[in-house]
Amino acid sequence: MPLIETTALEMRYDGGVTALADLTLAIEAGVVGLVGVNGAGKTTLIKLALGLLTPTGGGIRVLGLDPVADGDRVRAKVGYMPEHDCLPPDMIAAEFVTHMARMSGLPAAAARERASETLRHVGLYEERYRRIGGYSTGMKQRVKLAQALVHDPELLLLDEPTNGLDPAGRRAMLDLVHRIGTEFGVSVVICSHLLGEIERICTSLVAIDAGRLLRSASLSAMTEHNDLLVVEVDAGADRLADALTAAGLDVRRDNRVLTVRLGDDDGPAYDLIRDAVADLDLALHRLERQRHQVADLFRDLPTPAVTRV
Ligand SMILES: Nc1ncnc2c1ncn2[C@@H]1O[C@H](COP(=O)(O)OP(=O)(O)OP(=O)(O)O)[C@@H](O)[C@H]1O
Question: CATH homologous superfamily for 225-291?
């Protein structure tokens, strides 16, 4: 069952802005990147998935449920980390996250225990009794993540979780999201306008632009090797390219890096490269099968539909 499935989904706001138009997609379990420039319609889709907005056309199902008719049941199974600042500055983090756990229906003692545990998971255990107003942006983002996780959801919806963070903070937040997706077995939809930033932690990507689906692709194919070998030498790449071409291989050279197309039988290419490198007495830096690039999937999208970093 897809996590989120939409059929000809349309959302027109009062005032005439069409945020989503004829959007049909299926988001499968895993860590899914929902990418698109600011204004593409990502937040609108998240709000529709949570039952916070009612579509003006088409349909949406989340974990098999209809968020319009069954919003409470959907929200019990889904954690939501909003993009905007929404934390009470005068509250202590442990109290706030406990409160959110209580709101989700946990009894008082279980809520306190679960809040501590969740704050530990997001790296705020030592700081949990401090006022949120005194936290750094990175710590606030972690509190937002903790309140989304505290009721043990099946699906997490994260709206631009790296917003406002410096590069190290962004990496740390994405590593944390990746751990949640892989170690805790929670599916995650992570919205971002930066494809290049989130692609490394995602199992699939969905790109939208102006409320329409541009591309949806699993990244499993991206982790597969293609049929090219990459060979990098310190110096003498031109001589190596000549020698390999003379030996019958299909070789391209870009400075010190050669790409060699493997035939049906890989063996001879490896042997020929090894022998040529030895004969020419070159320093070999790299010899590996090339992988597909995620960017290849999105290369032909109209710019600036997806921002790359
Ligand atoms: N409450 C609203 N009333 C009217 N228009 C809205 C409302 N909320 C969003 N919009 C418009 O709908 C479109 C999609 O906005 P949305 O916030 O869903 O995009 P987004 O991809 O999440 O971008 P961002 O990351 O900047 O929030 C935009 O043109 C936006 O201005």
Answer: YebC, transcriptional regulation domain (3.30.70.980)
